[in-house]
Amino acid sequence: MRSVSIIGIGLTKMGEHWHLSIKDLIAQAGSMAIEDSGIERKQIEAVYAGCMASGRLVGQEHIGAMTADVLGLNPVPATRLEAACASGGVALRNAYMAIASGMYDIVSVNGVEKMTEVSGEDASFALGGAGDQETELFMGATFPALYALMARAHMEEFGTTEEQMAAVSVKNHKNAVHNEYAQFRNEITIEQVMNSGYVASPLKLLDCSPITDGAAAVILCATDVAKKMKLDGKAVEIIASAQASDTLALAHRKNLWETRAAKIAAEDAYRQAGLKPKDISFAELHDCFSVAEIMAIEALGFCKQGEGGKFTEQGNTQIGGTIPTNTSGGLKAFGHAIGSSGVKQAIESYWQLNNMAGKRQVKGAEIGLTHNVGGSGATAVVHLFRKV
Amino acid sequence: MRSVSIIGIGLTKMGEHWHLSIKDLIAQAGSMAIEDSGIERKQIEAVYAGCMASGRLVGQEHIGAMTADVLGLNPVPATRLEAACASGGVALRNAYMAIASGMYDIVSVNGVEKMTEVSGEDASFALGGAGDQETELFMGATFPALYALMARAHMEEFGTTEEQMAAVSVKNHKNAVHNEYAQFRNEITIEQVMNSGYVASPLKLLDCSPITDGAAAVILCATDVAKKMKLDGKAVEIIASAQASDTLALAHRKNLWETRAAKIAAEDAYRQAGLKPKDISFAELHDCFSVAEIMAIEALGFCKQGEGGKFTEQGNTQIGGTIPTNTSGGLKAFGHAIGSSGVKQAIESYWQLNNMAGKRQVKGAEIGLTHNVGGSGATAVVHLFRKV
Description:
Chain A is built from 15 helices and eleven strands. Chain A is an alpha/beta fold and about 400 residues long.
């Protein structure tokens, strides 16, 4: 398998883009990535597009072909990948595999979601499609309710507190202040989180990631080809790519306080790269809800099982801490345009490893980790990165 | 790149399955394929699931994880691929690439669509997501209307007649009589097609493929591994896998009477295998509408551009003709459970090449071709097969 690197990145600002269609979002991020990489369009051999729920949200499927079309890349093979909220991560992984295998040298990875142009009820129903509609959503659960069950289980099993979960949101908002692409660039306090209304107890409004329009893109290139073509100035190598699955429905899991697929994917990623959790400089985690980041740092081995709440409260995951997490602002404050999130995590890694993250830079960053989760944990994708 | 083969197949009967959920359909076809292949579940290393519009049709995304879950395959990586009506074809292709690259030895390819449990209006809207909703469907076009524009252009440019298009449906119904999995096993006549009501002139009801519930699955295995494990008794090798894209909207094409992506994918497939159109023994084509089969046989080089109507009328595409097409019954009579169709085409090839097609067997079949199209031609996937 060949070494594969990110050689260019593109991103829209996250938020409510009432004046931009899904095509506009794809075009903006995708064109930026092509320009950033220094390649010409005709050098791109394939498109891998991550998108979760465009059918439900904007009435549009066939997002792979649409992406190739709006970026002027026809007739290259263009494919959409979907794994709920991990759609961006699986797009990145399949693109990585296509280059690693020798099939292609240069491909475009695009992630997008246009979420604001539906009624609140429809967006909620669309997001429910990440879980098991038949046994969960049709029975009255909303998606926040599923994570609320996990949060409650974690609290019961390990004594995790609502304040500890709130600390995740506070940290991520603090980081997002310094990210010009973030949806929310305001700091918040523990008190504000605690006083925000319950969405699904114990999760409150400020424990939940928002509804977001946005797109992200990276250009991947075989590392040897990038070097030969002098495209490797800012190249960041993908040194591990792992994915695992778990039951779709929460009710079929052994317990609700751990994410088994994330553990398995992380172990595989560490094995691929010959690294351990202590070797990771920073991590972009899937904090769709605050409790999800706490479960993630446990699954990834940054702290012991059950100690994620305390670990967060003690400041270990802040910039300057032992393992800075979600320096981008995370899904909570950066925003969560679903199909783009797994791609945007790779972009934050690219920025951090190129020492381009400005006021949120992790000093001496050498190895980055991204963790992208689909649904309530039925898909997990873990990537590891280092500077070429 | 390693040789990859199909070592087992599974299929549901196509039709209106009011008593079967999308999970049931996946489980039925997927389990049959595992059993047919002779492997154990634990040998499967990844799942590639093709599905177009489950979000819109049954409110469910995350079809990759769902497939792994209902087949008892957790925690393997499980990914859904979507390219509108070519979703099954791209799932097959990505699974093929994953084995060819050396990443995996054995993977499950699953295709599904549950289409009947929505109102007519919703199914129509969902299918419209294969085209360009913004400029086509939201402006009043239905999906049959897009193909009607192509049919009209083909008639104007080449003198193709409605009777010639009707001959496609008549042939495909005739073939489906002998396929126990087919949705419609009744013969029809040119007169019946001509007298059926217009859906979008010149296309009539009997020019159109139906709304179908169904699933299909194949187990892919590295050919050398299959031989070593003695799983190659009925193995059929994938000797070429090609994909291309075109503009999403018809309005952006150079003309409406050819499918450029299919031409490009076919040329690539022939090049990969070192074969020519005359070397093909039979072809499973994407006849979502009768005119689409006529355009397909032209794009694939079985006859000259513009002569597809006459070629069909003369009986060349019948079993016993120069190039038998859609021996399965095609999308028209076999049924078109969208995400499953690209996988089902591979299954018909497996049957034909193993001399298992019964009364619809093509004598001396050596090379099979499948042609799976997304939308009005924005995606085309072409595979070639031969007996190991």
